[in-house]
Amino acid sequence: MLIGQYSVGKTSFIRYLLGRDFPGQRIGPEPTTDRFTVLINGPEERTIPGNALSVHPDLPFRGLERFGVSFLSRFEGSQLPSSVLRSVTLIDTPGILSGEKQRVSRGYDFTKVVAWFADRADLILLLFDAHKLDISDELKGAIDALKGHEDKIRCILNKADQIDRQQLMRVYGALLWSLGKTMSSPEVTRVYVGSFWQEPLRTMDNAALFEDEERDLMKDLAILPRQSAVRKINELVKRIRKVKALAYIIGYLKIQMPNLMGREKKQQKLINDLPNVFRTIMKKYNLVPGDFPDINEFSAKLKEVKFSEFESLKQSQIEALDHALESDIPKLMEDLPSEKDTPETLRAKMGKAAISNTSNVPLPTRDTKFGKGADDNSANPFGAAPDNEDKYWALQESADRLWDSFEALGPEGGFLPPSVARDVLVKTGLKKEELRQIWNLSDIDCDGYFDHHEYVVAMFLCDAVIQKGRPIPAELPPSVVPPGKRALLAKKNADF
Questions:
Q1: Burial of 2 per CB tally in 10 Å (0-12, 13-18, 19+)
Q2: What is the pLDDT of residue 363?
Q3: How confident is the model over 352-356, as a mean pLDDT?
């Protein structure tokens, strides 16, 4: 879900991620996106009205009916065939208003709708314009509605290419200061800095920084499908703990009510004394404050019901919740993929379709955007010629052939964890010293992980030793080094 004031680049970011326009797209400097738009994958391009989305049997939007026709008329679906949308669903939100505009009623409770989507989103992107860091009342209300979801929030300082390096330093500091006053979290929220659309940077002072920031953000998005199951379990645990605390509260209030006379007076007394009621329940049942509902909202809701009509607490139901937390949830966690899994157990857990995880979220790559110049051979499906020393890679055909085997190993964010990469090399049967040399040559960036190209280099070296009986070279031939890592390897060798 993308949230931000108008004209910060939310819709342009989605267009950049998809690599194309989408139905219902509205881009402009004024508040153009006036509705919540959900982007979903489908065989044909079309827009779906909000009322139809809310009753669709295969889509999870039925709960939005509670916000009424006024909201549903400002909610729509944008369906289009997209490789990105096969793995993730994107939510574009209306531009948050500031100044006099925020005093105009939207016709529905904006913050409650944001809270509804936040409960169900795996990632929340909070966008800011480098020229508009002020946090309006409506934006502050939207951020307050995200309370409890701080782990999902990522901030984006967009349009940062329009200011120079010194101004960027000041703007970045000002944004962190503003967020610190607005978000009640002890940790600093991750802020990505850059220009997140398809156009070239206006100034190249920070091109390398913006490229690294964009790559990190895209990796964050790429691993969302793998993290989705963990987040669902996390939300389930949070809900179970809150239900358990609420059950104890309702049960306690029920017991305190008299059988015949003075019910209304006793109920009002309990509501007025709710802080002490919470403390009593916490001590009696060894609960923690974080599991309890907001005391002001809960107090207001209690005034609308009768305590005498509450159901009595059933210990068997509490035991069922405890059993879910202590037994059922841990079993679910064991079924999720982990670094300890072998490729075989990973395939058994996830299935063939799920193993190719990160490739389902194609990442936009435009070298010209960062001032690197166009690749003359980028449009040639057969790659660069051997006489093009900068672009030619001798292992390109091997890379294409080994892609499926690399994906079958279950890379995370495009990288094989050290334990998985190690097991692959050990299975070749080579000696430990030979494997050590091959690892040192293949792990070009020395991060302990294998990306696809490093995996190809490692398999090439193993094959050269096993099949052709060649000795392991002291250093990689230039044509074997992936073009994107040659500058890094040159710097690495220069340091030695």
A1: buried
A2: 55
A3: 43
In this structure, are residues 298 and 270 in contact, taking their beta carbons and an 8 Å threshold?
no
Q: Render pLDDT for 68-114 as a digit per residue (tens, 0 to 9).
A: 999 999 999 999 988 788 888 999 998 887 655 554 567 888 899 99
Query: Please, what sign has the CA dihedral across residues 315, 316, 320, 323?
Result: positive
Average confidence score pLDDT of the chain: 83
Arithmetic mean of pLDDT, 318-338: 85
Percent of the chain with pLDDT over 90: 30
Helix (H, G, I), strand (E, B) or coil at 13: helix
User: Which H/E stretch holds residue 158?
Assistant: strand 153-158
Flag whether the pTM goes above 0.70.
no
The answer, yes or no, to whether residue 464 has pLDDT greater than 70, is yes
Strands 75-80 and 153-158: unpaired
Contact (CB, 8 A) for 337 and 346: yes
pLDDT surpasses 50 at 355: no
Strands 124-129 and 2-4: parallel
Average pLDDT over residues 295-311: 89
Q: Residue 220 corresponds to which tokens in the numbers above?
A: 């964050």
Q: What are 195's two structure tokens?
A: 């220009």
* φ/ψ of residue 435, rounded to 5: -65, -35
Angle, to 10 degrees, between the axis of helix 137-145 and the axis of helix 110-120?
30
CB-based contact 174:163 (threshold 8 Å):
no
Q: How many helices (H) and strands (E) does the chain have?
A: 19, 8
Nearest-angstrom CA–CA distance, 336 and 346: 9
pLDDT in the model for residue 439: 94
Tell me 280's DSSP state: H
- Other Cβ atoms closer than 10 A to 195: 27
What is the four-CA torsion angle of 115, 118, 120, 124, rounded to 10 degrees?
A: 170
Helices (H), 257-391: 263-272, 274-285, 295-302, 315-323, 329-334, 343-355
Nearest-10 Cα torsion for 313, 314, 317, 322 = 70
- What are the DSSP calls for 76-126, one per residue? EEEEE--TTTTT--EEE-PPBP-GGGGGS--SS-HHHHHHHHHHH-S-EEE
**For residue 360, pLDDT beyond 50:** no
